[in-house]
From TrEMBL:
Protein name per UniProt: RidA family protein
GO molecular function: deaminase activity
Entry's family note: Belongs to the RutC family.
PANTHER family cross-referenced by the UniProt entry: 2-IMINOBUTANOATE/2-IMINOPROPANOATE DEAMINASE RIDA (PTHR11803), 2-IMINOBUTANOATE_2-IMINOPROPANOATE DEAMINASE (PTHR11803:SF39)
Length: 124
């Protein structure tokens, strides 16, 4: 097992790692849409989804991988009405790659974020 730290991201705010590589699987902790270098989120669900995915990608890159290595993605949203926007934004970011995915409406997210994304990737 190897702990993965993405230097582009803020240090974890709790007792966890950005990612954990276990064998060929990389488990990526939930990523909030923090902008690089600041403790702030962009405005709106579309921009937050893009930033949260960029943060997932930063963990992937720290492990030598890319979005194409994702095998499962979990997206948490505070408002189910945002599902169409999140789905469209995610689709544009992922292109032809279609890992397993779930979008889960949930209660409030930490720091008032509108979206949080965790994922699993296979590293070759």
């Amino acid at each position: 097992m190897k702990l993965i730290t993405a230097q582009k991201l803020p240090a974890p705010g709790g007792h966890y790692s950005h990612g954990v590589l276990a064998g060929k699987l990389l488990f990526i902790s939930g990523q909030l849409p923090f902008l690089p270098g600041v403790q702030a989120f962009p405005e709106g669900i579309n921009a937050q989804c893009i930033q949260a995915m960029a943060n997932v990608e930063a963990v992937l890159q720290a492990a030598g991988a890319s979005l194409d290595h994702l095998v499962n993605v979990q997206i948490y949203i505070v408002d189910v009405a945002d599902w169409p926007i999140v789905n469209s934004t995610y689709s544009a970011l992922m292109g032809a790659h279609r890992p397993a995915r779930v979008i889960i409406p949930c209660g409030p997210l930490h720091h008032g974020a509108l979206v949080e994304i965790s994922a699993v990737a296979e590293i070759e």
